[in-house]
Design goal:
The protein is an alpha+beta fold. The protein has a domain of 61 residues. The strands form two sheets. It has a two-stranded antiparallel ribbon. The longest helix is centred in the middle third of the chain and has 16 residues. It is elongated and about 70 Å long. Pfam families: SpoIIE (PF07228).
C-alpha cells in the first residue's frame, strides 16, 4: 500500500511533545485494506495526541490490485478505402505491400 499524508499528521504532537511516528506505526499495523489502515491510523493518531490536533491532517492510502488483463490489445492500422482502420483485437494484419 502507498500512504500519502500531510505535514499535520507527522507533526502532530503528544501531550509530552513527541511527534507522531507515522512510518513506525504503519509498519506495525496489520490492515486488510486501505480503509482499515486509515481507520487504525486515525484512532492511533488521536490517541497519540490526546484526541486533539493542532493542524489539519490528511491521509490517503492506495492499494494496487492485481490486473486481470496481463496483456493489452494489439492495435494496428492499415489502409482501407483511402482511410485508416484501427483494429484492436485479433492477430496483426499482414504488412502492406
Amino acid at each position: 500500500m502507498l500512504v500519502l499524508y500531510t505535514d499535520g499528521v507527522i507533526e502532530a504532537r503528544s501531550p509530552t511533545g513527541d511527534f507522531y511516528p507515522l512510518a513506525e506505526r504503519v509498519a506495525s499495523l496489520r490492515a486488510s485494506c486501505p480503509d482499515a489502515l486509515l481507520d487504525q491510523i486515525h484512532r492511533d493518531l488521536l490517541a497519540h495526541t490526546g484526541r486533539r490536533l493542532d493542524d489539519d491532517a490528511a491521509l490517503l492510502a492506495i492499494e494496487r490490485t492485481p490486473s486481470h488483463h496481463l496483456h493489452r490489445p494489439h492495435a494496428t492500422a492499415r489502409p482501407h478505402y483511402a482511410h485508416r482502420q484501427l483494429r484492436t483485437t485479433g492477430p496483426p494484419p499482414p504488412p502492406d505491400p
